[in-house]
Amino acid sequence: MNGRLNLVLTLALVLCALSLVNAQYQARHLFIELERAQAYSRQLDIDWAQLQLDQSTLGKNARIDANARHDLNMVPLSAARTQYLTVGEK
């Protein structure tokens, strides 16, 4: 009887030890995954800030005006170049 009890307790102890090892492995795995997700989140925050900076730089009126004049050869509208259309007249 005493030997059988020792065998059952030993088996229970081994199962508990294996369960503990498995739980620690899963905890480490989840922690590594959490660290990767946090690093990815930080990188996305940096990218978002850079995109906002680029948007504010590219959207300035002076830059748009300079690009229109230089790249598209656009000139400001003047009264001499303005045409008015009226309904019914030819």
Q: What is this structure's SSE topology?
A:
Layout: H1 2-58, H2 61-71
Q: What does this protein structure show overall?
A:
With 90 residues, the protein is mainly α. It has one domain (2-75). It has two helices and no strands. The protein has helices spanning 2-58, 61-71. The N and C termini lie far apart (118 Å). 0% of the residues are buried.
What attributes does this structure have?
90 residues; 76% helix; mainly alpha
Instruction: Find the count of extended strands (DSSP E, 2+ residues).
Output: 0
List the secondary-structure elements in sequence, H or E.
Answer: HH
Shape: rod-shaped
Structural class designation: mainly alpha
* Biggest pleated-sheet summary: none
Discrete helix count: 2
Helix amount, in percent? over 70%
| Binned strand content | under 5%
Terminus-to-terminus distance: 118 Å
Instruction: Provide mean pLDDT, rounded.
Output: 90
Whole-number count of domains? 1
